Amino acid sequence: MLKGTRVDGVYTADPEKDPTATKFDEITYDEVLSRGLKVMDITATAMCKENGLPIYVFNMDVYGNLKKVLDGENIGTYVHA
User: Are 66 and 12 in contact (CB under 8 A)?
Assistant: First the structure.
């Protein structure tokens, strides 16, 4: 699943509010859920986990990023089992 957002991935905190937030290149569903990270709502994240559907979070506001994601460039965060 591709998840376009206003930031370039999943962070330890909201990077728009916390300048010390650290980006994850990859993270597990369990870690997202246990840390309470706001990738998307908890139910959607849990459903992706239950169905083995990885999520790729990237910044949708940057021109060309969708093509980069589809070409396999590492520009966001990969959420997986």
Answer: no
Take residue 28 and report the two structure tokens written for it.
């597990």
pLDDT band at 53 (very low <50, low <70, confident <90, very high): very high
Please tell me the distance from the alpha carbon of residue 38 to that of residue 45, in angstroms, as a whole number. Answer: 9
Per the CB < 8 A criterion, the answer to whether 9 and 63 are in contact is no
Distance of alpha carbon 77 from alpha carbon 81, whole angstroms:
13
> How far from 49 is each of 16, 21, 28, 44, CA to CA, in Å?
27, 24, 9, 9
Question: pTM for the whole thing?
Answer: 0.91
35: CB partners within 8 A, 6+ apart: 12
